[in-house]
Succinate-semialdehyde dehydrogenase [NADP(+)] 1 (Mycobacterium heckeshornense), 471 residues
Amino acid sequence: MPIATINPATGETVRTFTPATPEEIDTAIGRAHARFAEYRRTTFAERAKWARATAELLEAEADQTAAMMTLEMGKTLVAARAEVLKCAKGFRYYADNAEQLLADEPADAAAVGAAKAYTRYQPLGVVLAVMPWNFPLWQAVRFAAPALMAGNVGILKHASNVPQTALYLADVIARGGFPDGCFQTLLVPSSAVEPILRDPRVAAATLTGSEPAGRSVAAVAGDEIKPTVLELGGSDPFIVMPSADLDAAVSTAVTARVQNNGQSCIAAKRFIIHTDVYDAFVEKFVEQMAALRVGDPTDPDTDVGPLATEQGRADVEKLVDEAVAAGAVIRCGGKRLDRPGWFYPPTVITNIRRDMPIFCEEVFGPVASVYRAADIDEAIEIANSTTFGLGSNAWTREESEQQRFIDDIEAGQVFINGMVVSYPELPFGGIKRSGYGRELAGHGIREFCNTKTVWIGSPETGDCGSGEKAE
Ligand code: NAP
């Protein structure tokens, strides 16, 4: 994959970039490693000052940054601007909370025969971040803000189709005041990830992306015995029960499916509707999906822009075409738009059987699969029947049903009467093949910390911790 900005709305290559050489990679790792030795001793107050300054710059530059993101991966300008502002919020959240989230945790000293015992969180060192293009700023910031506030330093290998956004992030973090070498972008192909991760100066890695990429990074990290966080794909269920507010459920379902032009890991992708409200839901849902305006992502009236890459559109098309050939029914959309750029319309499909690939694979585009469930047991069974376990959405006013969904859906997050959204304040991540580890909130900032147990004996008693006096 070339490292290049290719406008998905036109297919035009705007700018190409030369990948870093092995020598440049070595220099960058060396710079990061040397910086860590000093940076880990900076105070939370210093880091917070730099994080707040970065947030201010992000806000001040939001319009230009949003335009760059739209040019590189096709999300609407409105969505891109909101993403930049969310990144500012992410930096502020960790500026305000990191010290308390990483404060020493006292333990019951008497129970372990100590004068004092506690847990201390310390940074690990150089962390490699391999990131996807779909939220090109936010995905990287939700790694960078907690990692930097914890005292780690980062090296970003971003997706090859968002090089300008990747360079911008390192630049804005440096202008925010973080010392040189704290956060660097390396423009490299995915083949460079393995040697970087194997470098003894790199302590850990995080990857957000597809299952094959996650498997490959986890295998190398396993071989090197280095910790990883993996945020991989999802095929989130969106369940609607008879007691739900149907109009709210339908309009949220539309947003949950087409956000980011349908290319979000936590987009609702499978709509599982109780049979009592199935027909009413499908009618309203199809009407609203078909009414969305597809077009130029820079136009404020556009709801859905192009898919980010030509290959991405081909993958979506293949899943839809195979399903239709096997008997699934298109209720709206289903055919690529006849215009330059990688446009695919909002699409609703019903009558899907379990032997169709679309049943179990992630559809990374604005395509909604709708299923009928006879009751709550069947709804949960369908929801849990993929290998993914990222997010989940369930709509019901019945408290007992809400508890069933909370207890029995296999996912890293369950949102009741709403849609899955990432917030700095809430842990984010998946189970099963959606990955492991958590980003955001306290869980996220501790992922790349050494949880160090501290036990201090009493010099007077000479207690050695065994519960007996030392000889
Ligand atoms: P991708 O192809 O896996 O790429 C993600 C990143 O991994 C890119 O930087 C890519 O570099 C790199 N990469 C690809 N293959 C690699 C390999 N074998 N070894 C090391 N690095 C490798 O994924 P994508 O198409 O950009 O993103 C879409 C996927 O990400 C979807 O499955 C989506 O659900 C998932 N995602 C998950 C989350 C989450 O939080 N769980 C969030 C967003 C997206 P190149 O670009 O150079 O190939």
User: Anything to note?
Assistant: The radius of gyration is 24 Å. The chain has a mean pLDDT of 97. The chain has two domains: 4-232+430-456, 236-416.
